[in-house]
Design goal:
The structure is a homotetramer of 337-residue chains. With 337 residues, chain A is of the alpha/beta class. The first copy, chain A, is built from 11 helices and 14 strands. In chain A, 34% of the residues lie in helices and 18% in strands. In chain A, the strands form 3 sheets. An 8-stranded parallel beta sheet of chain A has the order 13-12-11-10-9-8-7-14. A 4-stranded antiparallel beta sheet of chain A has the order 2-3-1-4. Chain A has a two-stranded antiparallel ribbon with strand order 5-6. The first copy, chain A, is elongated. The model of chain A has no long low-confidence stretch (mean pLDDT 93).
Amino acid sequence: MIIIMNQSATKEQIDNVEKKLSQLGFKTHPIFGEIKTVIGAIGDKRLLNTQTILSMPGVENLVPIMKPYKLASRELKQVSTIVEVGDVKIGGDELVVMAGPCAIENEKMLMDTAVKVREAGAKILRGGAFKPRTSPYAFQGLETEGLKLLAAARDATGLKIVTEVMDTRDVELVASYADIIQIGARNMQNFRLLQEVGTSGKAVLLKRGIAATIEEWLMAAEYIMAAGNPNIVLCERGIRTYETATRNTIDMSAIPVVKEVSHLPIIVDPSHAAGNWKYVGALSKGAIATGADGLIIEVHPDPSVALSDGPQSLRPSKFAQLMSDLKLIASAVGRTL
Amino acid sequence: MIIIMNQSATKEQIDNVEKKLSQLGFKTHPIFGEIKTVIGAIGDKRLLNTQTILSMPGVENLVPIMKPYKLASRELKQVSTIVEVGDVKIGGDELVVMAGPCAIENEKMLMDTAVKVREAGAKILRGGAFKPRTSPYAFQGLETEGLKLLAAARDATGLKIVTEVMDTRDVELVASYADIIQIGARNMQNFRLLQEVGTSGKAVLLKRGIAATIEEWLMAAEYIMAAGNPNIVLCERGIRTYETATRNTIDMSAIPVVKEVSHLPIIVDPSHAAGNWKYVGALSKGAIATGADGLIIEVHPDPSVALSDGPQSLRPSKFAQLMSDLKLIASAVGRTL
Amino acid sequence: MIIIMNQSATKEQIDNVEKKLSQLGFKTHPIFGEIKTVIGAIGDKRLLNTQTILSMPGVENLVPIMKPYKLASRELKQVSTIVEVGDVKIGGDELVVMAGPCAIENEKMLMDTAVKVREAGAKILRGGAFKPRTSPYAFQGLETEGLKLLAAARDATGLKIVTEVMDTRDVELVASYADIIQIGARNMQNFRLLQEVGTSGKAVLLKRGIAATIEEWLMAAEYIMAAGNPNIVLCERGIRTYETATRNTIDMSAIPVVKEVSHLPIIVDPSHAAGNWKYVGALSKGAIATGADGLIIEVHPDPSVALSDGPQSLRPSKFAQLMSDLKLIASAVGRTL
Amino acid sequence: MIIIMNQSATKEQIDNVEKKLSQLGFKTHPIFGEIKTVIGAIGDKRLLNTQTILSMPGVENLVPIMKPYKLASRELKQVSTIVEVGDVKIGGDELVVMAGPCAIENEKMLMDTAVKVREAGAKILRGGAFKPRTSPYAFQGLETEGLKLLAAARDATGLKIVTEVMDTRDVELVASYADIIQIGARNMQNFRLLQEVGTSGKAVLLKRGIAATIEEWLMAAEYIMAAGNPNIVLCERGIRTYETATRNTIDMSAIPVVKEVSHLPIIVDPSHAAGNWKYVGALSKGAIATGADGLIIEVHPDPSVALSDGPQSLRPSKFAQLMSDLKLIASAVGRTL
């Protein structure tokens, strides 16, 4: 950690900062420039409230040297994590595709979709039972009934299932049905929910918040890991920018950045990122070529009657064609699908 | 609602959209341009899943004419809402200042701060008992103990108290102590929490999400109002942009925009927006002159020992000076403090 | 074009808007909803100053139906444009890679780089003679001397050359050397420069502005085309967002969006987008798989002595390896390299 | 300057960085932490291409300690600069308001506006002769004819005049008419234009780029100052964010930040920031209370016939009312108008 003193900091202010750091267990190394002084401090920043230092008179800035996350970092664990969900492995050479409707609407549509995405090569069925909706007047999901339909689809097809939880009070219920619990973008910093899924024993699909930095996203993973759950799959789903041609701006560079600083697997959700099924194919191919470990794609048997997010859903036939195209890309980057 | 058909839409596709709208209870008015067709549709969009239409073949875009929120809109209620918390009125001619520490640390610091901010003219004491922290290793708040200290400070000073709730399971507890329940920026779209505070019977301070549009923010208010609670105070606290000179970018234009489209009162949090006490004074004055109904300001007796957000906290003496400056601004815009 | 009147607009205000539109040559179609009135207007919006309408009493908003650009739009020209630079075709089945140093530093380094990137399969040599630098104290480029070195490298290797122009006064000079004139991100809305290269007779590489929407970018292309030059290659090079893990956020979705709305070819600059050579490989692969028509990549024989942008430059050996990897991706998406 | 070596940096890599810094005239101070090494380097960073260091093997990051700008910084010049334009002083206790139409359309409208804004208390007349327009088909300004009309309005009213220049070839012409030359937001990093106005001998109104950081903005000022011109007035005019309720998001916190790090005066343009005349009054008051040295406001005798930016223009009567309101705010913050 480096503390930068401002130009007009007095000798006494510099001494006070050194003294405080020393009390907090840091070794200090001041460097006196012609105009400003900086103080190097060696010790465990995680034990420190850095704002204590930042608030001291004469301090201009504080530059951390180490990442704020530890369990999620590749500095700590250099081997890439493979999250196992039954016999499905996420993060290995084989890519994993999750597919299904945005919201579960009824038994028939879910079962039809499940059968078709399995045929096309998906390993995991997605489907929302609890839906975070911007409007209180929109369809909020089938809730427990939806979870039961998901479980039935799993029984019928052998697919694993992933579904979102929005409320700490529902974690136990959702965990009793799902193979993977999803934390949605809006709840990425719902810290109590993170802690709760951290004790659920189920793998977690952690979506990136709509305006979260990669560092904040990994800190959210750290919350779950610190609560005892190491089985986390990160999901890039687009970030909010000024551009309105797509619903969000997919941040493809997050893939190599995450691979460098963390050992956790990362998949991409092109459906929510683009908000338009026309772009899902191109972005899916791009994500795999960039190094993603998989995809989560919305598929609906008839998008024009979908109760949620129809415009971004692929029909099963288009999804099957895309899966076939993706096999070629996977092979070009040394992976399988 | 206007439906824009794309350039290559067929007659049949246009007919199908009209037919579907008609089934859904809308009256349609097609306009045939030389290149594109648009369809005007009259009816209650809130009853419609617009994505049903957006997913139909030939549809390029859908433009809503009415706002998606209703209870929160000035279209519905033209008189400005005044939220009453005991004898404190928020949204009237008199400005309301809330002040206090970021986190409650112990009885003495809270009581000292409470006494001093009351002397300076604050009406409401802020203080966090449950703290949303980016790091799982940071101080998470005194929880119930903190609520008790707040209540004791209220008893001693007569100030009202505002404090944050982060978990649906804690709403009843927090409501049993607080005069105003705060929904933090990270939970602005924690829809279950919004619904829960909507039934709590207490006034709600609804912070804007870090990357929320004004429309999404008002939709969050709509969630609370739809659950039965009309006593909402909006709080602008800075949005995330590319600029790093301040922690967030305070969106001052949100003040006149909110005043135009909604009847709800709006206050500003310059401390979290700037992340630096040096800018709090200038931004507080600016917010009042721009038309805010009040402020929420962090005050700490000794920021350099604060357990949370010290760098953005004012010392009580600086806060008192600021309050005195603000009286002049209030008067210049025809209000009192 | 749709004009939305506000809720309190009077009959007279609605009539006035219709009358004005009619004077301006539009046919109007009012639709009277229960709460608001909208007016459809058929005619050529490009002839209209829409702000005239927006400023009229009672008008709430104006929604354009047609795109503001015409020459650059696929609505006008449905066949994809192939820009020919001698025997190099950009926008066809064969991908085109441009490579070379950020700035031209001296004859030897440029010639060495040129030979190596040609061997690896690049078709076009990039190199800056005029450099836009954030600091007035930084190296500003070799200017005319740099142009001569580029021309010599072209003579020696047969590569085409692309280089940036920053000043209207230099367009003639740069055009006399370059095969493709580059408009940098900072000058994307330097409209006089756009007009000047529009009359230069040379192909133009038009970089996206650092915070330009896709629509503004295509309007910049429209400026060049309206001045008589249809040979434009668009270049996505990352946009400014709140994320700081990479220098800019590469907007991969711009590729399918541009392909949908425009007929112009689009390439990607992963070096400037990421600002870090470590991410250039992954993003290059991603861009090709997403559908880009080519890449422009910084290559420097020794990045640690580069006078500009060393950290984002690849060594020639890494570039050669990447080109070999890219051939596989190209083939997987039905293209050649 | 602090160089952070990465975790796996070898002793040899650390030595090489120290050696290189030493060759470049820096004194080095390595600090060996348990996990990472950092190297403090004392010397003049402006003489250094920091990328040379960033590209060296083993280097993770480089943290500058000093600001990259010098002439524009308050570190160098502690007394606030007052820019004198004839007898008008910008940056002193008296606030300065510039007002007038977006574009000059004809003699009558300009003269009428000039007379009215002078009566209301404006000191400087604004008006565009060269207009940067997003569309090549929009009105581009009266050019030289417009400059002549401005000069005539100055003669008639005694107001100073400010107008924009877009092309290096026009700087001499514009400087021969204008009292203050405006650099528009789109040209903030048109470095050649900055250099050219740096030698013009006229004061410069430097608008912030639409996505420029405060640091980049001050670097643009540095370009002008390094070319010999110290008379710069900064102008905050809104930045691009995801929020669409206003055209841009006015960054009010830029006012106290600029006041802290620079000695240059700063004014605010609420008209372009908001893009809507309804918000101009509130934001003008807010800007003055926040500490701005003045305002630049669009005023048009009949916004509904304006050739440019009508929706954001105030009528003269509203402008006069606003000026009267602003006097009260000015007085509340210890200034005059």
